[in-house]
């Protein structure tokens, strides 16, 4: 439980240090929480999230569908790496 609390404080510090959600993932990679390649891919995914959230009228639904079908593995990998980091 202590490791989880330490990890949560680090994540909170990252959240306060970055202005945009897409910058959280490279910050986690810089700290060794996730690997850098995953951080880059999740940064791009956050960019797609921003497009979906803010540009409804100009979405490429084919692209959104392709990402949803084929790139969800990165979210699972993200969870695995966070879990491994918490467990130490």
Layout: helices, strands, pairs:
Blueprint: H1 2-17, H2 24-30, H3 36-54, H4 61-70, H5 73-87
Helix pairs in contact: 2-3
Query: Nearest-angstrom radius of gyration?
Result: 14 Å
Secondary-structure element pattern, one letter each: HHHHH
Mean pLDDT across all amino acids: 77
Helix proportion: over 70%
What is the straight-line distance between the termini? 12 Å
| Strand coverage percent | under 5%
Stretches where pLDDT is under 50 for at least 5 consecutive residues are none
Structural class: mainly alpha
- What is the strand tally? 0
Number of helical segments? 5
Q: Quick one: overall form?
A: globular
Major beta-sheet overview = none
Q: Number of domains in the coordinates? A: 1
Quick tags:
88 residues, mainly alpha
Provide a concise account of the structure shown:
The protein has 88 residues and is mainly α. The chain contains five helices and no strands. It has one domain.
Explained architecture:
The protein has 88 residues and is mainly α. 76% of the residues lie in helices and 0% in strands. α2 packs antiparallel against α3. The model has no long low-confidence stretch (mean pLDDT 77).
């Amino acid at each position: 439980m202590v490791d989880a609390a330490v990890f949560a404080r680090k994540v909170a510090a990252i959240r306060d240090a970055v202005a945009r959600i897409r910058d959280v993932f490279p910050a986690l990679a810089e700290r060794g929480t996730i690997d850098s390649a995953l951080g880059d891919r999740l940064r791009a995914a956050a960019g797609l999230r921003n497009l979906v959230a803010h540009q409804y009228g100009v979405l490429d639904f084919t692209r959104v569908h392709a990402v949803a079908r084929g790139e969800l593995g990165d979210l699972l990998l993200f969870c695995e790496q966070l879990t491994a980091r918490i467990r130490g």
